[in-house]
Amino acid sequence: MRNLFKYLAVIVITFFTIPAFALDDAVNTGRFNNIAIDGYDTVAYFTESKPVKGNKNITAVWHDATWQFSSEENLALFNENPEKYAAQYGGWCAYGMSNEATVRIDPEAWHITDGKLYLNYSKRIQKKWLADKMYRIEDADLYYPEVTNINTFSDK
After folding, report:
1. In terms of Cα–Cα distance, which of 117, 127, 60 is closest to 90?
2. Rounded to an integer, what is the distance from CA 11 to the centroid of its chain?
């Protein structure tokens, strides 16, 4: 009987602690779907200088997430060079990532720096991120591989 309690204790502890060590997905997708960055066209931030909702019929799968695009042209650009167009940190909030956390985003809170797209949780948080973005980018670059499964992909 004593051994049974020991085994049950190990099972309960394992059940509750293993998820704490799990890494988040490399790409910020919906809670109940696999759509990257809330279905916004990541290429449009570069080509149209604004957030544009993607079309559910124009998609590419990259890093285990479905990316939606507003046009076939944007899809082709992404397919040629996804690293160039994909939001940094898989579309997780750049400010949050600089604090070692995966945080959802507001697609309207965006900024391009040195040819890279950064998204934030809100415009209020974006102001904080922009105030010291170079330091925050350094931190987020370090934390992204630690808190997500990005290292499981060979192109990163």
Report:
1. 117
2. 32
Query: pLDDT tens-digit profile of 66-109?
Result: 999 999 999 999 999 999 999 999 999 999 999 999 999 999 99
- Pick from 63, 85, 62, 65: nearest CA to 73: 85
Please give the angle made by the CA atoms of 58, 40 and 82, to the nearest 5 degrees: 70
Contact status, residue 75 vs residue 62, Cβ threshold 8 Å: no
What CA–CA distance (Å, rounded) separates 102 from 92? 6
CA angle 128, 129, 134 (to 5 degrees): 135
The structure tokens 């290292």 sit at 151
Of the candidates 93, 92, 109, the one whose C-alpha atom is nearest the C-alpha of residue 150 is 92
